[in-house]
Design brief:
- With 168 residues, this protein is α+β, with helices and mostly antiparallel strands.
- Helices cover 40% and strands 32% of the residues.
- It has a six-stranded antiparallel beta sheet.
- The longest helix is centred in the N-terminal third of the chain and has 24 residues.
- The protein is globular.
- The relative contact order is 0.13.
Length: 168
Amino acid sequence: MASTKNIMVKILRIIHKPPLFVVRMAFIICLVVMGTVMARAQEGLAVNNIFQQYGHSKGCKMVVMHNTRLRGYTLAVYQSLTYNRKYAAGIDAYMKIDRKSAKKIREVVDNGRMVSGYYMMQPLASGANRYVLFSRSNNDKGAVIYIEGNLSPDDIMKICYSRRYVED
């Protein structure tokens, strides 16, 4: 117990040294703010549960990018998840929840089966639009993508369904 107390006292002395204290507190505040902003990006959407539940599962691959460019468009948030058939039913259940609250729905149906599309969700207070995109193959492998940014539905269509964009 005494050694734990000594360690804590030493840590507090280091942290409270004037120049280091300010730098460390600023760093801690930045981390808290970034975590809050990232958590709010998908607030109120079922797709958030998909990324949290399946993002680190075996057979899934998750990509997360902030303030990036995709085919010439600036995105505040890009998050994608590819998954195998093992998780398809659970992911479909979450997608149905977001479909119910979507502002705009675009789906591609092939032989009576929904294979791809996007849902435009309620924009953020900042005005940034939020989209949930999805794609499924015949063997129930699929992908879910969350995009946030100042993109129109036409921009989403260009990103997803046009030939590869080449910048000059």
